[in-house]
Amino acid sequence: MKKPKLRNPLIIFSSIAILLAVVFNALAHHLEHVTISHVNGWWIAPFAALLLSIALVPFINRHWWEHYYPFVALGLGVVVVVYYLGILNNGPRLFLTFYEYVSFITLIGSLFVVAGGIHVRLAGKETPFENTRLLAIAAIASNVLGTTGASMLAIRPYMRLNRYRIRPYHIVFFIFIVSNMGGALTPIGDPPLFLGYLKGIPFFWIFWKALVPWGVAIAIILAVFFVVDTLSFRKVKDELRAQAREPDVAEVSGLHNVGFLLMILVGVFIEKPLMLREVIMASAAFASYFTTRKEIHHKNDFNFLPIKEVAILFAGIFATMIPALDWLELNARALGLTTPGHYFWGTGILSSFLDNAPTYLNFLSATFGLHGASLENAEHVHLILGNGLPESGQTLLQPDAFAITGETWRYVLAVSLGAVFFGACTYIGNGPNFMVKSIAEQARIACPSFFGYIVKYSIPVLIPIFALIWLLFFR
């Protein structure tokens, strides 16, 4: 394997980040004057068309989709871009979405590259207990490394550990636990929670409030996985089971990349100047790749195809979802959502198909508005997260709108857990989902189709667990 084949994407990646840093700072004033467009509901159609394409076309003709998905995703995205520029004349809205997309793809791209330079081979056996323990540890790690970082670091050792008997459900439960639900305890864990932190929600507030429901949900889904994996393990032929009992020799290499990983995580908290965060992340990825021995990349079967697929598909998703998010922003408060349970299910269902970060912000803003408060007001944030708003409503923007007393913080918790948990329901619910799927497929591991994932796993496994969380904490 020759490194020059892999250098070009890194050089392009880093150069574009630096160029965009200059452009975004020169046009930063446009980000401060973004208005939401009053869009016709029919303009959600390009987004729906893209989702249906992702779901159905690979099932109908996988070969065609593998060659032409960039044209489908980017073509539908261009339709929305032309609509916003030519008809709505709302260039700043597109500019903001482009900035959010660049931040998104830089974060997951840099974590993908750095994690790809760390090779881990576990000494355990591929028993149900070992698998469950690995998923539990990775779920906890996702709160420190982010769901993307933990997923990219753990997926390859996890696949190697189960190489003799790996099944589609192994990948699906990994996405459930590590790529999504695990990261619900800290702002580092998942992008929606980080946006809440930037809006004034204290760093450890979500940890203490979400710890019990998170623990219940993770314990149940790990138990379900253990039962499923145990039944599968019993069906494995004796000779394969014997191989499974022969543990590998533990091996860890490329540990210098831990420093670059920390560099990325520190960079997450840098807000200004614009794009400094992204330049730091791109620099960490660049330095990581060129200081990692090629045999480590070879052991990890590292290449840029997974991040390329995610970058193209999510470029289309970010563009086509703009009308859907604008419509939601303008109509969320008119949807009749009045209880924490409403916000849990509402945020969750839309986060399964829309990017969960802006969906989180829209519903968080809606729940503040329900209480006559403003998300942009630090005092309102403090009151909502504390013992409830004062009944006098003297500190509120709209005193007459304040009609609900009690534990208003439950609304914020419902939106937070809904955004993070339900991202596991589809391949596009969270960025790491598609990357894990792509890495698994490159290793020739069969993964469920888009609808197969939902029908066979999300609905029968996740929805009952989420319903229980709703009954226990938000009903």
Low-confidence stretches: 1-6, 389-405
Order of helices and strands: HHHHHEHHHHHEHHHHHHHHHHH
Measured distance between first and last alpha carbons? 56 Å
Q: Which range best describes the helical content: under 10%, 10-25%, 25-40%, 40-55%, 55-70% or over 70%? A: 55-70%
Beta-strand content: under 5%
Can you tell me the overall shape? globular
- Rg over CA atoms, rounded to whole Å, is 22 Å
Note the total helix count: 21
| Sheet with the most strands, sense and barrel status | 2 strands, antiparallel
Q: Assign the structural class, choosing from mainly alpha, mainly beta, alpha/beta, alpha+beta, or little secondary structure.
A: mainly alpha
- Lateral strand order in the biggest sheet: 1-2
Average per-residue pLDDT, rounded, comes to 84
Number of strands: 2
Question: What layout of secondary structure does this protein have?
Answer:
Elements: H1 4-26, H2 28-31, H3 45-60, H4 62-87, H5 91-115, E1 119-121, H6 128-161, H7 168-177, H8 191-198, H9 205-235, H10 238-244, E2 251-253, H11 257-267, H12 276-291, H13 294-299, H14 305-320, H15 322-331, H16 340-351, H17 356-370, H18 378-385, H19 409-421, H20 431-442, H21 450-474
What does this structure look like?
The structure is a single chain. This protein is mainly alpha-helical and 475 residues long. 69% of the residues lie in helices and 1% in strands. The protein contains 21 helices and two strands.
List keywords for this structure.
single chain, 475 residues, mainly alpha, two-stranded antiparallel ribbon, 21 helices, 2 strands, 69% helix, disordered N terminus
